[in-house]
Task: structure prediction
Amino acid sequence: MSFTAVPQARLRLNRSTLAVPGSRAEFFEKAARSVADVVFIDLEDSVAPDEKDKARKNAVAALNEIDWGRKTVAVRINGLDTPYMYRDLVDVVEQGGGRLDMIMMPKVGTAADVYAVDMLVTQIEQAKGWTRCIGLELIIESALGLANIESVAAASKRTEVLHLGVADLAASLRARTTGMGGANPGYTVLTDKRADGRRDTHWADPWHYALARLVVAARANGLRPIDGPFGDFTDADGYRAAASRAAALGCDGKWAIHPSQIEMANAEFTPPKADVDQARRILDAMAKAQKEGKGAVSLDGKMIDAASIRQAEAVVKKSELIEAGGASASGMRHAG
Ligand code: COA
Ligand code: MG
Result:
């Protein structure tokens, strides 16, 4: 291990993040009763400019009046380049901060963007005398944000999550996309000719670079990496495949832009029972090995060592959190 220890963000269940437009107050109760781990009320792109004030008021009312149970609740504020953002932050935190777990920041470009929001939230918390610490979720969805991702990820102790915002990222990169978060028939590899002269076309994942980079930046800073939206909510197989590949890369969860995607996210990001059982066996075998003074031993014909313990512990910890059904106070690096 490096001599540098990486403090971990507060441990939260974050398999599914349901997006709810702030202007659609009729969705709020349904969102609260859903099985989503996290719900965010959106004040940004799903809300038309004329509806911004109403959506902000709806969000404050929802934080105060709706029973969200053990869910993590977030509000997505408007971007720092808009005339709405300061009012979003001040009203939502001052008036709804008692139940607000996280502020979601869109289109983060630089560490200074995060610094500015951290400073304002800190002032409000101090003025209110609150000791609990509201977290930040940062959406990486521009060339600037992706280029600066390491410094953005390290900018504030409040930050808990990095999300990949695929639609805005594609627009910023001028990338050709056909669907939000899906594959693209233009992004393929054509194989060489086989003996019979045939060639195969393999579809590749146009989001791989950005997602892998985001996972590295998040984990290097103790944050949760979360995959963004998949727009075609009628394509369940497409959603499951996207979620499965994000889980394989190391993400903790994925957005759901429609209730039909929540259970698929929860399933894809829950470690399979066989993996949890195997992780427990590894921990038992390593505990026995350590007593016998051995560093590496074999289990079922495969080598296991100290690195296997860390992987196994991560799987077991996640499974315990799922059984407990929500956020945990452990792993916090924040005061309060
Ligand atoms: N949260 C809670 N409930 C929702 C919901 C949401 N985001 N989206 C739909 N529902 C509810 C509907 O009210 C409906 O309930 P009912 O069966 O009791 O009438 C049910 O789920 C099925 O909804 P459906 O008719 O299929 O969807 P819709 O046409 O009303 O809405 C969207 C489709 C995409 C507009 C809507 O799901 C939505 O606004 N999603 C979030 C978009 C967003 O926040 N984008 C920003 C982030 S990318
Ligand atoms: Mg966006």
Q: What stands out?
A: Residues 18-21, 24, 27, 30-31, 42, 45-46, 229, 257-259 surround coenzyme A (ligand 1) (CB under 6 Å). Residues 329-336 have pLDDT under 50 and may be disordered.
